[in-house]
């Protein structure tokens, strides 16, 4: 049973934890992280969810993501999720998320990293991931159009690719 820390709307941790699936009060939020790995060719590592995975079964998704568990910092959650889902060790201790998207029940931190990963060295988490591959922005947008990828806003996918080399929303 996965436990989550609970935050207020200003992202201050409050003295409360909940179990995944528990109802949260309207003024309570939790932390989610996503990691997007790009190779030196500018492609993103994407993963395909298992057919038996609840929510978005069989669809392709960005590199990895999930909820922070109780006690995790955002960086620790990113490192744990990346290792659990794909077997990749990466140290997030000295980096910040590139951006955060607020959603109805929480905060979603996005990490954008460049890292040439050999697909043959991945260890896919059998409970969650059935496949992984490199994909261009155009390939991902086509998969979204074909309803084979989680339906992210196209502008978010474009921002992930365009913003991967720097922080902020201004071209440098």
From TrEMBL:
InterPro entries: NUDIX_hydrolase-like_dom_sf (IPR015797), NUDIX_hydrolase_dom (IPR000086). SUPFAM superfamilies: Nudix. Pfam families: NUDIX (PF00293). Residues 28-158 form the Nudix hydrolase domain. It comes from the Bacteria. GO terms for molecular function: catalytic activity. PANTHER family: ISOPENTENYL-DIPHOSPHATE DELTA-ISOMERASE. This is NUDIX domain-containing protein. It comes from Niallia taxi.
